[in-house]
Structures
1.
Amino acid sequence: MKTITISIFILCLALMIIGASGCQQATVSTTTSTGAGENAHAVEIKNFAFNPSEITISKGDEVIWLNKDALVHTVSADDNSFSYKLITGQYATRQFNATGEFAYHCAIHPSMKGTVIVR
Ligand SMILES: [Cu+2]
């Protein structure tokens, strides 16, 4: 009987430690950031268009493209420096570390065009 009590005590202690470390991990993940001074800007892909089609960001910022259409689109740089194929609900993120204007399009639907202006 004594050994059972001790076993339960150790089990409880172990669960407390696991529980505590689990909470700690959750706290860390909610405070994770991409870095100092970096902002993320969302561009929705919907109804065969990038929205907003033109976006102005600061150097070091990120753009997140999210495909909300029911079919596949791509986010392809006109200069071929990047290309992301996105199925429904998928997103792609890119950080822009150089200033300039970066035109992109959908390789599947050439009428879909967008520009990222980095200042
Ligand atoms: Cu498309």
Note: Residues 73, 106, 108-109, 112 surround copper (II) ion (CB under 6 Å).
2.
Amino acid sequence: MHVAGSSQYIKKCIVANSKGETSSRYRFPVKNEQIKKIWIDRINNDELFHYSDQRLYNTVFVCGVHFLPVCKTT
Ligand SMILES: [Zn+2]
């Protein structure tokens, strides 16, 4: 049996103290260096600069509440 909206699809948001528990998650826009830098800057976690693009894309999730629409990718 499958339950829609199962919590297995809710990835942990990388932003410290994030309150966006139920909003959509976004993967890092690793194809766009400029937007990628904006995200890392906004997240304020310099550690992410040392991640490879693949690691960012596969392991880092951010909920949509932290970004202006222009910075989102779909
Ligand atoms: Zn968040």
Note: The pocket of zinc ion is lined by residues 13, 15, 18, 20, 62-63, 66 (CB under 6 Å).
3.
Amino acid sequence: MTDVSVLPSLIGKDATHEQVVFCNDPHSGLRAVIAIHSTALGPALGGTRFHPYATEEEAVADALALARGMTYKNALAGLDHGGGKAVIIGDPSRDKTEALLRAYGRFVQSLGGRYITACDVGTYVEDMDVVARECDHVTGRSPAHGGAGDSSILTAYGVHQGMRAAARHAWGAPSLAGRRVGVAGVGKVGHHLVDHLVEEGARVVVCDVNDAAVRRVVERHPEVEVVPDAPTLVRADLDVYAPCALGGALDDPTVEALTARIVCGAANNQLAHPGVEQALADRGVLYAPDYVVNSGGVIQVADEIEGFVFERARARAARIHDTALRIFELADAEGVPPAVAADRMAERRMAEIGRLRGIHLRGR
Ligand SMILES: NC(=O)c1ccc[n+]([C@@H]2O[C@H](COP(=O)([O-])OP(=O)(O)OC[C@H]3O[C@@H](n4cnc5c(N)ncnc54)[C@H](O)[C@@H]3O)[C@@H](O)[C@H]2O)c1
């Protein structure tokens, strides 16, 4: 598929990845990129995104950025996993077939366990069951196949833990009771987060572009307020803003308009560009790094590799509270925004634990 001569320039932009694999099976129509950013902490773990990228360059760039993000997320989740991610180029509603998924599974298998795949945007637990017919290195499977099912439950739980840590750091007590919390996007994760917040006694305001998603929340919790859109929510009188829809939620106009003291939500890649983390800090907003607080999902799929035990996975997701707190303290101590402190803490763990491989043990 891709002219390999362009590879160095594509990867050169972000040259720390260990391995990038192009997968091509013309008969099934499979065109995929598997990016392994790091195996310093163990086999790379990260989902497979199925998306109609306009160009192969765009697909490679996304795979590289997503894989790098997983390295940091997995490191701070305390997992023995490095970071990787795969993208399949195509429209999942049109192009996803059994043959394509199984062809993809054979490519993942060819990596011998250096990369373990799971679901992401455009792929579902049933798809992982199909991939697993050709491959041993698949998690995020359906309960019928020993999988843990919907990861949004522990993702929302982890975000709530991170939010409690932020409240503790900002206000001295790990509680959202009486606080006004705005949740932008009440899909799979957002609506579970609303459940936790309402149960804790927070005053919740939501918005979503999908009316059915809003209705589901209001039917469960009639006391929840609804505003028309995210810009309105950002300007509302909030204590906490929780972006739970798409990436890039924190851009310059949003930071400028924010009333909340804390930002803590599930969405991946919330910072629209480098520098936003500093702009938030300059405005006195405490930002809980997205990849730290939304790691409940990957904690769940990692647990599944051992044979899923919900309570064990939840206990691990509960530690997001302490990790977030340590990040806020490190940020204060080092005079940097929490996003920078989180990266430093992840890099420290990778260096300390990755170094142990220097002590030779047969077969490990
Ligand atoms: N599901 C997980 O376990 C998990 C884990 C880690 C991170 N995340 C991230 O959390 C976010 C939410 O994931 P999800 O699984 O709940 O997805 P989802 O698609 O179920 O929910 C997203 C919701 O946001 C709404 N939305 C989209 N654009 C919006 C806008 N401009 N304003 C307001 N609402 C809007 C959608 O209508 C939808 O209801 C994503 O960024 C995802 O990458 C999810």
Note: The CA atoms of residues 22 and 161 lie 38 Å apart.
